Amino acid sequence: MNRIRLRLSTKIFVGPLTKYFKSRYDVRGSCTHIPKIVMNNGNEMPILGLGTWGATKDYAIIENVHVDEVSDKGRTKPNEMEAVVANAIDVGFRHIDTAPLHKNEKEIGVALNKQIQEKKVQRDELFIVSKLWNTFHGPDDVLCGCKESLEKLGLDYLDMYLMHTPMGFKPGDDLFPIKKGKVSFSDADYVCTWQAMEDLVKQDLCRNIGISNFNIKQIERLLKQATIIPQTHQIEAHPYLMQKELISFCKYNDICITAYAPLGSPARPWAGKDTKNILLKNSTVLDIAMRHKKTPAQILLRYQIQLGHAAIPKSGTCENMQNNFDIFEFELHPEDMQNLDSLDYGMRLFKFSGYLLLTPQVPSPKNGISMPLFNSTVLACPARRGPHIATILCSDKLETVTNGHCDADYFWILNASFTTRNMILEKFKINGKIKKKQNIVHKKNAKQIKLTTGDK
């Protein structure tokens, strides 16, 4: 059921996927623009885009790195973003990815509108992506979040609007609303958030909508109630982290993949503190680059393209942008693809581990793969390793949770009083979620409950 297609308005696309798409979907060619993926609604998305993250130190909070330890090397500051976007458009990029978390939407908007006014590009040639941040997950807040991004960008509509994570924070001006050292979460259900995003399409504020950092079980639950299938799923993807099971699931359900950090995110603020294995310096990547007389970055981007993924590398210089753009006139051989495939060892560069420290004490993630987070949230982790959830339960949420409206195999009760904990357990028993005493396992200050119903 893999119906993801490439439409080329460029030089003939070469590579292992070419014959497949040609024979099945009539690949076209012969000008000089970036190839496009045809999404499940028939709309097109340029397969190569410009990533603009890294403009702030908020990622240090997310990844539990002390701000003073964060390096500015390779980071593009907001006041530099106008020139970066202008250069990208001059090179030929039309797909620009941003987010409120990047704190650069205003600068990007200035650059876009200047390019449009100078007739260097037309609005309908651009594919602008922004994201709904966690503080706008309340169904009544989604419209506000979208309009805020549109106002900063100076646009009438977004070509793609993504739910940045499945996790909702308390609404407010702070990106990370923290109270007593802990993030303040909202009760918003990401399914309800998605339904509000569907309304944005009906209001012509967004041409396409998608998700980011979801896992399989979350997507399954979303699809059961969605009227619009997500057009894309933006996730971390590179040879060190293939996420094959998640990607196969998305493609089976006609959701195309957008890969962030396709080069291994060499400029991430905590680079070198999480791993010494630099993807751009990997010997396998270097050998393939030498054989093809290309840069390591070109090899890694071409790899994503041949997998059928859109990719959004970050780049601050014209030379790097031009090199990133120049990947459509060569192909990686089958053995090259296999060698790059073999580099996968589940190395997640974006672990979101800071959330674990801002939330109540939870079981530690396993090498960044299994990640217990708030409210049924596991960010882009393989389903076979979980999921687990950790949440602060209050009386007005008990009915929803204990009646089975959660999508996890295991449930953790944390930091609850003795009375509250027993009330929760009793509700699980009444609703058939617990059949045996053995299903309750003590873990420090938490109890792990194995759900015995559902289609797990």
UniProtKB/TrEMBL annotation:
Pfam families per record: Aldo_ket_red (PF00248)
Residue ranges constituting the NADP-dependent oxidoreductase domain according to the UniProt record: 48-344
Keywords, in A-Z order: NADP, Oxidoreductase
GO molecular function list: oxidoreductase activity
Gene3D superfamilies the UniProt entry points to: NADP-dependent oxidoreductase domain
Entry-linked PROSITE patterns: ALDOKETO_REDUCTASE_1 (PS00798), ALDOKETO_REDUCTASE_2 (PS00062)
Homology family: Belongs to the aldo/keto reductase family.
Protein name: NADP-dependent oxidoreductase domain-containing protein
